[in-house]
TrEMBL record:
Residues 203-233 are annotated as: Disordered. Residues 92-321 form the Glycoside hydrolase family 31 N-terminal domain. Pathway: Glycan metabolism; N-glycan metabolism. Belongs to the glycosyl hydrolase 31 family. This is alpha-glucosidase.
Amino acid sequence: MRRPSSGLTLVVLLLSVLDLTSAVKHGDFKTCAQSGFCRRNRALAEEATAAGPAWTSPYELETESVKLDQGVLTGTIWKTVAEKDGGRVELPLQISFLDDGVARVTIDEAKRQKGEIKLRGDSKARKERYKEAEKWVLVGGKNIFANAKLESRDQESRVSYGFGDFQVVLQHKPFKLTFLRNGEPHIVLNERNFMNIEHWRPKREQEGEEGEDESTWWDETFGGNTDSKPRGPESLAMDITFPGYEFVYGIPEHASSLALKETRGGEGNYEDPYRLYNSDVFEYEVNSPMTLYGSIPFMQAQKAGSTIGVFWLNAAETWVDIVKSQKNPKALSTEKRSTHTHWMSESGVLDVFILPGPNSAHLYSQYGALTGYTALPPEFSIAYHQCRWNYISQDDVKDVDRKFDKFDIPYDVIWLDIEYTDNKKYFTWDPLTFSDPISMQNQLAERERKLVAIIDPHIRNEGSYPVSKEMNEKGLATKDKSGEKSYEGWCWPGSSHWIDAFNPAAVAWWKNLFDIKKFPSATKNLHIWNDMNEPSVFNGPETTMPKDNIHHGNWEHRDVHNLNGMTFHNATYEGMVARLGKGNEKRPFVLTRSFFAGSQRTAAMWTGDNQADWSHLSQAFPMILSQGIAGMPFAGADVGGFFGNPSKELFARWYQAGAFYPFFRGHAHIDSKRREPYLYEEPYRSIVRDAIRLRYSLLPIWYSAFQRASFEGMPIIRPHFVMFPDDEAGFAIDDQFFVGDSGLLAKPVVKEGAESVDIYIPDDEPYYNYFDQTVYKGKGYKKIPAPLDTVPLLMRGGHIFPRKDRHRRSSGLMKHDPYTLVVNLNNNGVAGGVLYVDDGETFDNQKGAYVHRSFMFNRKALICGNLHLEPSKAEAYEKTMEDVRVEKVLLVGVGDEWLDKKTAKVTLGEKNWEVEVSVTKGRRGKANVAVVRDPKAPITQDWQIEF
């Protein structure tokens, strides 16, 4: 949400300077040329590139300083500088080697590390470089490989490490690091000598040296705000090369393609680097490297048969340039293009993790081991959510709830935006329009539905408002640059202060506000939406806080900006877990707009304030896929588009697409027309209903995929390069994807007027149309019919997936419904799949209270087995599920010899019985389908069906 409502003061409207009829205002946000440190580092890169071999890097690793002790290498890098600055600068180096092959490289600055610098003015800011991001981000990285071995020569050191053939070669002069796997270089740091650590130096009154432009070294003005920079210039940069890797992905959030583009100009490329600086961008444009609401500085590189990654742990403003080496068209070599990246951050230490892969599953596990895996969400949260800015009253909410039932459209959650509050004061209700919130929540609870309410980090500056009064009296707000006064800015309530969630005392206080006994009229059915937490400040530089604001510990906002949103939603999550009291904890649902690496542990995200047009529908899947590979797969986009009014066709197609977003929510701006699905005429209403029902039918697939993501880090929806890492023809595809481990291949229609799509099939297995079992076979593109009432969806042979075919009003009412198993046979006539089930709301699954089953078809029998590692811990939960059974089995792609089959035998322990089998002959390109009706096979026990 981004637009002031009519009730706000004229001052806020003027400060916001926003126009509903226009798209993003580029002048409100910096380009690289307007960001001093980005411009300086880009200029250095251009100078180094132009000079070629003649370029002299000022960085040298002191040979005698290199030591290896218990898996941690230390050394000293010296930077040669002008004599007036001391001649050289000491930069401590540390490389930690981990068991799984991950290596962590950190470079600090000794003078700042020791506090041997002077701050400008009377600033209270810390003197050191910020290196506390790991406290918020990392949950792992402690498994040091103590047996690493060091070999040193005059100008080179080599370390072998990890349970695999991992090595790093340290070139001493000029400093360079080459990481090898199985003897082959995969990642090189400082290959192009763009490394730059802007060391501390005092500000001199005289002009800078000839050729130097000091205009942004000591202070910097943008949009009428001057950044005082009390520590002076302190940026850091490093070039990272992926030799032989042409494709790179990640570094969300950007409205760009999944495969990242080059950023140094040229046809189809960007002129500016990708920017990571969490910002409230109004009506963002598509196909842009412009910063958006969140940042995850993780990048994955892919070539045929190999995957690697880097994680740049820095929470300050960061820019990433990407260029690719050009192949010589006359050369006979089959060598692939390499990708060269240039990472530039405004402050902090250089802290980069090298993740060796060698495949996506390993890579995501390595990254998850560092930053944590996505939380297994409450089951209702992966169903359909209904939202708009704003439902105007409790009666409005109740009416919408009843209308969904009247038109037989399932949904699980309804949302309240800021207008539910009393004058934009969070933890309150408008006394006129929401006078009895409990009755509203109780009505929802009758159908197992939930309420989500928005709570933002800006607190109305009003002395009579208890939350504001207490926060300021206890000193829990973010401070201005003096470090003493609470920072005052403007947001929805007008004059506001911002909670400083870097402060443990502030987090403890914030958590307490969610206590069910203290949060007025809140029930256990209430969940939370954290918006505007970049933070968004209407009158701030680039619509956010000044960088010289002071947070807990006297760290400047510039150091922690990209972490800010995560600290806030973490605090909310902790409060929601604890709100019912010890022993009564339930999994909360928290949605955040701003995020950083590690946010996946406590929140879902959405892509922000999109527009109701086809380009934004098309852009959503690349953005969501990018979130998934960067470790935050619980992602979605506003279905229907936030701004504007979608056409009927666009609305229908968006619901078909949204049914395949991990987070599936319809949302709309306050000025848009009401667009609840039941308001549309036929056939659009039925098309949307069918799309939502399809999502509900497939919830077992989605929940099982979330469970795997929660302990292995695999994305929920998976791009082709993840599933088929040897197939380079699919590496750039970002408009179709696989859903979990189900074998479902989806390509929703995202183009106006389209009645068919071309789906790329990456292998020679049969792919069956989900709706009519038409068979598509043979690698390459296949034209799939896609009339308006159809979403293109194929089932890959070799997979079994569970679904639920009974239509209910919410997912909570489906918990004990029976399952249908869809068995899609591959070329060898076999298939396999999994099902994960737990209570969907408590943390009892962490104690073993779940069902985890495997399904295997081996040509002769369908076998159900147990995947639970500690079956005894599941016994109590299994008792609550003992009546849940498989009520139907569909076998797709059986041979003609099945046409005479009439019965099958079910065996359960010592019991067995016969069931009927009916087989339909496939015609006009369709597969044969066998159906077993009600085999009475419980999901909690081992059994088999013999044919």
